[in-house]
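Hi support team,

I've been running sequence recovery on a batch of backbones for a student project. Most finish fine, but this one hangs at about 90% for roughly twenty minutes before it completes. I'm not sure whether the input is malformed or the queue is just slow. I've pasted the structure tokens below so you can try to reproduce it. Let me know if you need the job ID as well.

Thanks,
M.K.
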């Protein structure tokens, strides 16, 4: 079978035939770094890795474009230090303030050519594919290691062929098609349906304010019991269900890319059955190390024991879910001290426990719901959400989601400004 373009380029870079799915060590043809993240890369290069020189100064390009001109004294100092470092390392490809945007500059300077393997210090580096190169973004540590050795490791990606037929309507461009395909891919990452959980009724809804967005939700069955936390220990007698509701700090394509990263890392961190706070602490370390986008993600992660209703949860700076108590009609917020993931590598996180009794309803949501505004600039708010839940708590989970959306449409009567996600868990009487 013929190789894809990605397989051909990575085979040349690895010095042997490779195929999709392999993890391979490859030689880098060109590395690009910009002013925003360069100080961190240089610190790791010379500090943690102990490298004195870059592997090949002619294969490294440095572009000063993210904060250009410098907006603060600190920015100016960072850029001055970067220019000094470039001179010390003998790097001739420095493109200073005003030269242009990092990725197009490499194309214009003929440093991004067909068949090359190019790495960059941000996620837009995949754009080198437009000239037939293989481009990929990297975090601080991986980029520093590549600068020291001229090598990196990659997983050979699968290739998806998208074939579009017909003609664009007036006003529609290739970018619109790309966004549409990106939305379909992003939507495919979300659960196709909610889990079938005996004794429970579950429902979910996800809507992005633009074609792609930053909210996400997920469910997974854990293969073993969550680890006991220091605060409490709960005996779980059947397979627990983990679920997460999250909101990335931005909207549009950048948020969608960060959403994909965050979802994958949170899921990977949780699937071993770790307690919520332990799983989120692990995911936070991975997200912080692997992302240089300055974005963060708030989320609520819960693990519910279906046969007892015991819920252990951790809230990472997210809107507290609302728990309606059928016994007395009260509504309480489920929250724990904790901050969003992706801000600090050692973020403080904790967890707590609640019991969902028969007839109780748990509503998890993102701020696109409560912060939606009407013509008078009033927010929908948590009090209105509480009222809708109390009025429709006896409905099915799907009907409750529909009632919340209907109340929001009636209140706002305008297109959504922010992404919106709802997850409802109801324990059947």
């Amino acid at each position: 079978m013929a190789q894809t373009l990605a397989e051909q380029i990575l085979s040349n870079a690895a010095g042997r035939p490779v195929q999709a799915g392999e993890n391979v060590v490859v030689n880098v043809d060109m590395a690009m770094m910009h002013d925003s993240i360069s100080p961190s890369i240089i610190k790791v290069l010379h500090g943690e890795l102990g490298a004195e020189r870059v592997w090949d100064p002619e294969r490294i390009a440095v572009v000063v474009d993210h904060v250009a001109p410098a907006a603060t004294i600190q920015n100016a100092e960072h850029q001055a230090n970067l220019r000094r470092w470039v001179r010390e390392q003998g790097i001739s490809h420095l493109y200073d303030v005003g030269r242009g945007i990092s990725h197009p500059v490499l194309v214009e300077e003929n440093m991004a050519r067909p068949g090359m393997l190019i790495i960059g210090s941000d996620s837009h580096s995949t754009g080198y594919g437009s000239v037939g190169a293989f481009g990929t973004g990297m975090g601080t540590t991986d980029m520093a290691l590549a600068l020291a050795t001229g090598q990196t490791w990659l997983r050979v990606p699968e290739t998806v062929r998208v074939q579009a037929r017909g003609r664009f309507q007036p006003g529609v461009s290739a970018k619109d098609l790309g966004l549409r395909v990106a939305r379909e891919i992003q939507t495919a990452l979300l659960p196709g349906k909610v889990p079938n959980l005996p004794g429970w009724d579950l429902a979910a809804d996800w809507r992005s304010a633009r074609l792609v967005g930053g909210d996400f939700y997920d469910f997974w069955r854990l293969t073993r019991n969550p680890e006991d936390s220091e605060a409490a220990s709960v005996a779980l007698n059947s397979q627990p269900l983990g679920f997460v509701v999250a909101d990335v700090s931005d909207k549009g394509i950048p948020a969608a890319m960060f959403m994909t990263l965050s979802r994958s890392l949170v899921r990977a961190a949780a699937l071993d059955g770790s307690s919520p706070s332990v799983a989120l602490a692990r995911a936070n370390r991975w997200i912080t190390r692997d992302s240089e986008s300055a974005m963060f993600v708030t989320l609520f992660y819960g693990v519910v024991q279906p046969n007892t209703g015991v819920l252990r949860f951790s809230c990472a700076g997210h809107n507290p879910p609302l728990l309606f108590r059928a016994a007395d009609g009260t509504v309480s917020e489920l929250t724990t001290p904790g901050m969003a993931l992706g801000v600090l590598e050692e973020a403080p996180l904790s967890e707590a426990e609640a019991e969902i009794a028969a007839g109780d309803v748990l509503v998890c949501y993102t701020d696109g719901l409560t912060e939606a505004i009407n013509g008078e600039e009033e927010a929908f708010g948590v009090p209105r959400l509480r009222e809708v839940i109390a009025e429709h708590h006896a409905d099915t989970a799907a009907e409750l989601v529909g009632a919340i959306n209907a109340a929001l449409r009636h209140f706002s009567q305008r297109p959504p400004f922010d992404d919106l996600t709802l997850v409802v868990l109801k324990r059947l009487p």
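--
Follow-up from support: It reproduced on our side and the slowdown came from queue contention, not your input. Residues 225-237 have pLDDT under 50 and may be disordered. No action needed from you.
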